[in-house]
Amino acid sequence: MTLPPATLIRAVLLDVDGTLVSAGQPIPGAASTLSRLRENGIQIRLLTNIDSRTPETVCRELGAAGIEVPVEAVFTPVVAALRFLEQHPAERCHLLLSAELAARFAAHDAGAGRADYVLVGDCREVGGYVQLDAAFRRLMEGARLLALQRGRWWQAPDGPSLDTGAFVALLEHASGQTARGFGKPSADFFEMALADLGCAPAEVLVVGDDPETDAAGARIVGAPCVLVRTGKFGSRGGVVGEGHPGVAAVIDSIADLPALLEADFGILGR
């Protein structure tokens, strides 16, 4: 797969962890790359599976790292799940979330009452068996399973760590349900960002570090994808093969994106 003609690239969907920042620190060249894109009229949206913090917190953390983006440009599974629940105002959720996100979803919390859904996000604050078993019992009582995202693992500062999808898979196996997912690689998630941009898939470049979420989601909606080696992809050797179809290019880091677009595809040249 190759990138479409440069004249068609109108926007970039950027991952956050492993692409713009690593262990809370900016990846060299991230801020300047975003500035170059904006100077050349390229729209930017951050499409990230961060499911432990609100978009506002993500925005503040990026700002502290010198990467300035408006909160409206930050698309996380939280945004998608809230939109879904707002369309079902009478229904309530059993929450398996971080404390920060539980507060954001408080209006949709079933509490001790009947739960229509079990909503699963980042589980690092989950105490263990008791909380997982309580969620399982809700599912057996008829609640439907919702997953903020389905990543199997993530590249933590000290090494690979279980991600939300591992806990979702546990609950799926136990309950016999299949969760509805809101994050990458869900087509609905990518299409939400595309609609906000007003762009067709071929006009948008997806840039990230994860073949299973960034590249897979881009392929599902028909957008080209560039992978970076600074995060999850690089930690596993960074080799594109038959398991990663649809990847148009691989670069060492986000700092190399302007050169790729300028030298090979004719944009960002001024």
- Quaternary organisation: single chain
Estimated helix fraction: 25-40%
- Spans with pLDDT under 50 lasting ≥5 residues? none
The span between the termini is 26 Å
Question: What is the radius of gyration?
Answer: 19 Å
Residue fraction in strands: 15-25%
Shape: elongated
Q: Tell how many strands the DSSP assignment holds.
A: 14
Q: Which strands sit side by side, in order, in the main sheet?
A: 5-4-1-12-13-14
Mean of residue pLDDT? 91
Q: Which sheet architecture does the biggest sheet show? A: 6 strands, parallel
Secondary-structure element series: EEEHEHEHEHEHEEEHEHEHEHEH
Structural class: alpha/beta
Helix tally? 10
Describe the structure.
- This protein has 270 residues and is an alpha/beta fold.
- The protein contains ten helices and 14 strands.
- The strands form four sheets. It has a six-stranded parallel beta sheet, sandwiched between helices. Strands 6-7-8-11 form a four-stranded parallel beta sheet. It has a two-stranded antiparallel sheet with strand order 2-3.
- Helix 5 (129-140) packs across helix 6 (164-175).
- The longest helix is centred in the middle third of the chain and has 12 residues, at 129-140.
- The two termini are 26 Å apart.
- 44% of the residues are buried.
- The mean pLDDT is 91.
A few lines on this structure:
The protein is of the alpha/beta class.
Question: Notable features of this structure?
Answer:
six-stranded parallel β-sheet, 19% strand, alpha/beta, single chain, 10 helices, elongated
